[in-house]
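Please decode residue identities from the backbone states below.
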């Protein structure tokens, strides 16, 4: 579930950046992407918090850019 959220966040982030470059950062679609990303980040934080309370260590991840694409590892 956590990996799915990370992928969704990254996909929305890429769309948001593309729209922002094309239409400007104050375009309603760009703002909607930002809101969706914030909601997914909140879900991710809840999952991480639940895992830490249960004594499970959250899976570490790294973010890196390669050839204009972002990846999580």
């Amino acid at each position: 579930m956590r990996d799915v959220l990370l992928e969704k966040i990254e996909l929305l982030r890429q769309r948001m950046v593309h729209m922002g470059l094309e239409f400007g950062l104050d375009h309603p679609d760009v703002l909607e992407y930002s809101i969706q990303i914030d909601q997914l980040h909140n879900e991710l934080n809840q999952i991480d918090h639940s895992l830490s309370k249960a004594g499970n260590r959250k899976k570490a991840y790294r973010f890196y850019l390669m050839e204009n694409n972002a990846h999580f590892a």
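Observation: The chain has one domain: 1-53.
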